[in-house]
Amino acid sequence: MLGRQARTEWWERLPQGIRDQVDGYVLQDALFPAIRLLVDVGLVRDGVGIATAKAIVSERYLHFGDRIARTPESPLDLESLAVRAGGTAGRILVIEAFWDGDTVHDWFVVLQAVTDRPDEQRSLATITWSRAERYLGEDSGHGGRHPAAVAAEQVGGALAARLGVPFHFASPDVPDDEAPRWNPGS
């Protein structure tokens, strides 16, 4: 990976159009397209790989700060979730929570309404660590558990009770994206 000074010099040597495109992605909070663009233009020519591209994009995020249009977080209030669930075309069979993850947010929990129509599963919320912390309150104890799991159990369980359907979370204590998903025969 290039050092900070070398990254700055490489960035400044890029054509203005490429820098504008990267900055445009950053301002839209589109991390992966920004990194991909830098790797696409820099890997063969200058050996700029993912680590250097990620560092440059991180520096651009710091440069723009509050000007970045952040992706809105999912609402976790019961009313909003009930309205989102009510928009499904099929009959809701279960509210399910399951683990997923990526390189930006690490582990997070997806809350979804599973319906009687396989093509109509409705994602209701994505609960990241930071979103869960804000929902639960930073001083709330999680008993050593991931806060996204605690928040998912609270809001998912309440939503399921309100809708009169079961709540399913196969792995609430340990992040596991291969935990068994709900199926009608279970």
Sequence-ordered SSE layout with sheet pairings:
Layout: H1 4-13, H2 16-27, H3 31-46, H4 50-64, H5 78-86, E1 92-102, E2 106-115, E3 122-127, H6 129-136, H7 147-163, E4 167-169
Parallel strand pairs: 1-4
Antiparallel strand pairs: 1-2, 2-3
Describe this protein's structure.
- Helix 2 (16-27) crosses helix 4.
- The model has no long low-confidence stretch (mean pLDDT 90).
- The protein is an alpha+beta fold.
- It has helices spanning 4-13, 16-27, 31-46, 50-64, 78-86, 129-136, 147-163, and strands spanning 92-102, 106-115, 122-127, 167-169.
- It has a four-stranded mixed β-sheet.
- Helix content is 47%, strand content 16%.
Class by SSE composition: alpha+beta
Helix content: 40-55%
Mean pLDDT: 90
Number of strands: 4
Strand content: 15-25%
Distance between the termini: 49 Å
Uncertain residue segments? none
For the report, how would you describe the main beta sheet? Answer: 4 strands, mixed
Number of continuous helical runs: 7
Report the order of strands and helices: HHHHHEEEHHE
Radius of gyration: 21 Å
Q: Main sheet: which strands, in order across?
A: 3-2-1-4
Silhouette: elongated
Features:
single chain, 186 residues, alpha+beta, 7 helices
TL;DR of this structure?
The chain has 186 residues and is of the alpha+beta class.
